[in-house]
Amino acid sequence: MAATIIRPEGCEALSLPDEAVRLDAPLQAPADRRSGAGLDGLTVAELDRHERLLAMREGRLGSVHSWELVTAVDGPGTRLTTFLSGCPLQCLYCHNPDTLAMKDGRPVTSEELLARIKRYAGVFTATGGGITLSGGEVLMQPAFAARILRGAKELGIHTAIDTSGFLGAAATDEMLADVDLVLLDVKSGDPDTYKKVTGRELEPTLAFGRRLAEMPDGPEVWVRFVLVPGLTDAEDNVEKVAGYTASLNRIRPGAVTRVEVLPFHQMGRDKWATLGREYQLDDTEPPSPELTERVRDRFRAHGLQTY
């Protein structure tokens, strides 16, 4: 299950100030195309600061932490999950704090990433898979994400985004029209708990979920909830997340097709120490199988298919 895999999610600045972008690493372009294509024939290293920022704002250049080919997580089938750098949240249980700052990612052109995606098209067709844009927070780089999603749809490839929804206002209707599946991370149903977990406000996430449900031909939604003993496991909090999730299906029947209750784990703890960051959940134990199943049953009581 996804909860046993170290997966990026984290926190950083809300905007894209000039000082937040440091894309000095050389771009590793595929050998079968002109290096730097899509950047007026220049390599990333040849672009000055203004040109790099412009390329990012137009979506021709992105900051990418990593990518991996996975099966049975991040959506159906075998998927190429791409982790973009940067996130607006300050999650206490972030298990990949090395993805938190956009400036620490590798510069990747949209053409490079789409060329990589195209190479796996046969695998996606055979397994019913596709691509998932994750993070960090994918909506920190909406223009880059939009170009990748549009390009993938033109290739006939299933698309998904994994998002907290906090920056949902950055997703245009045109972008969402190119998304087949949204993995919506609802980290809490109680505003105070959400603020404690993430350092941010809950309402933008709830509003984004409602917006998805209100789209007549909107994407399929999978809701994800991380179960952390002593933090998110309170019965009232769980009930609020379950009730909210069920309400989306009342707006658009079948909007939410799956709920994943992901047990907290400590697999990312050492990364916090390596980065010199304080990790507040050092003494928190993973939830017991019994607690995890009880929480899943709360979602099932609302008629939600839950894993």
Could you explain how this protein is built, in words?
With 307 residues, the chain is an alpha/beta fold. The protein has one domain (2-13, 62-300): Aldolase class I (TIM Barrel, Alpha-Beta Barrel). The protein contains 10 helices and 8 strands. It has helices at 49-57, 110-119, 121-127, 142-154, 173-177, 191-198, 203-214, 235-251, 269-274, 289-300; strands at residues 61-71, 78-84, 106-109, 130-134, 158-163, 181-185, 220-227, 256-263. It has an 8-stranded mixed beta sheet with strand order 3-1-2-4-5-6-7-8. Helix 4 (142-154) links the parallel strand 4 and strand 5. Helix 2 packs parallel to helix 4 and helix 7 runs parallel beside helix 8 (235-251). The protein is globular.
Topology:
Blueprint: H1 49-57, E1 61-71, E2 78-84, E3 106-109, H2 110-119, H3 121-127, E4 130-134, H4 142-154, E5 158-163, H5 173-177, E6 181-185, H6 191-198, H7 203-214, E7 220-227, H8 235-251, E8 256-263, H9 269-274, H10 289-300
Parallel strand pairs: 2-4, 4-5, 5-6, 6-7, 7-8
Antiparallel strand pairs: 1-2, 1-3
